[in-house]
Amino acid sequence: xxxxxxxxxxxxxxxxxxxxxxxxxxxxxxxTAVNRAQFDLAESFAGEFGARKWCKTSQELLKDKRIDAVxxxxxxYLHCEHxxxxxxxGKHVLCEKPxxxxxxxxxxxxxxxxxxxxxxxxxxxxxxxxxxDRIKQIIASxxxxxxxxxxxxxxxxxxxxxxxxxxxxxxRDKAGGGPMFDFGCHRIEVLLNIFGPVKYAKGFVSNVVxxxxxxxxxxxxxxxxxxxxxxxxVTHAVYESADTLDIFGTExxxxxxxxxxxxxxxxxxxxxxxxxxxxxxxxxxxxxxxxTWAVLDDREPAVGAEIGREVNRIEEQIYKG
Length: 321
What we know:
globular
């Protein structure tokens, strides 16, 4: 097999902006079919991105023996259901983040994929940011000494009205949580990638501004097996956006004003320099490329189910407070 034949379940914003273009453009992918809740829009979506087939239901898509793998891009509460159904149909699964609503659902997804001998990956695309690899190189080199403390600020103002198609993000039974669950999970994966296993995590969750089912603001504290500490602040409630990462060591520090841009400043006692390590123009493309090669080469994906489950486990600790 020289190409992996893909089906896409869910055609929301991320699918349109990143997933579908990657499935269309990657030479090792054959974008075969799509399914979306609004079937009247499925044909135009398929035509726009070159998929040959559009399906009324996910079940119809999963029955198609021409499809080898599916990208699950549905709301979080459907991830477990769609992943298990795909596994039982013999399809490999790359699932949007967070992996599921609870660690117990993650366990069911992992078991189903193992039982049906298919691979399972989770869409933590920041794992493939060159700037993250560069941070790990700098820390390993000893240039900033021992890494002691990290802080991430992730702020995105978000106040959808009930008529907004993204209103489900503030419904607990569909989204699982607020900004910590939605995009805080990405930053947890970044911290795990840089510092390794988490020994302890605790969160303070609140609604500072908005009266809604999920939090609008959360601060999480981490202690890693390495001894390092970290703080992660996320919010939907402030006007100014933020995407920062700062790491402080015994002999220097690392500063990234916008993680998604990949510009990094390294400070030591004797020098200061700036480097640029930008991500791919389509940040999902390296993720999908890696998963595709994992299937074609019969290896585990770089961001596998165990990483997805560990993020969910840590999220559960944070929400327990």
